[in-house]
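For reproducibility, we list the full input for the farnesyl diphosphate complex.
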Amino acid sequence: MHEIDTKRLPAHIAIIMDGNGRWAKTRMLERVRGHESGADAVRTCVTACRELGIKALSLYAFSEENWRRPGLEVTALMKLLEKYLIEERSEILDNNIRLVASGRIEKLPEKVRRLLYERMEESAANSGMFLNLCLSYTGREEIVDATVKIAELVKSGDLQPEEITAEIFEQHLYVPQLP
Ligand code: FPP
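The corresponding predicted structure, in tokenized form, follows.
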């Protein structure tokens, strides 16, 4: 076992939740079993990052492209998200974790959205670690959405084009507080 040098840890770790299908295939299981196992692995990662003092953990859990998967698989993934948001409530709150979300959240089913907003609101004052769920997310659309918000400010006269800086741009990302 390698020792972890806690002085050389990154502030922000992002995990691409990939390989669930292949994990299931090698065990001759259905893809959904792979996703269930992936959701279980999330718990281990969150606990480990929190213990190590990581400031932010981003999970690429569901991309924009994932909407094109078979309906049954999308439904199963949304159910897993619901389950996670219900079952991990105390884990999030007891460990001073602040849940945030990146992506076009408005596209998620009503129930997932409601649970997500509940967890975000009740953990909003927590300062131990950001847990950023990337849902219905793509990096390109994050840039587009930030640009639209800035364009609206320019249109209303609240911002001048020459006032647009990297800092202003950063303030309009989905979760500006993320390191
Ligand atoms: C990629 O595996 C994984 C996904 C598309 C979904 C991951 C999301 C969950 C398990 C939902 C629960 C989320 C949380 C945060 C608890 P893949 O199907 O592309 O696998 P492959 O690369 O082997 O084909």
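DSSP finds seven helices and four strands in the chain. Residues 31-52 form the longest helix (22 residues). Both points were considered when choosing residues for closer inspection.
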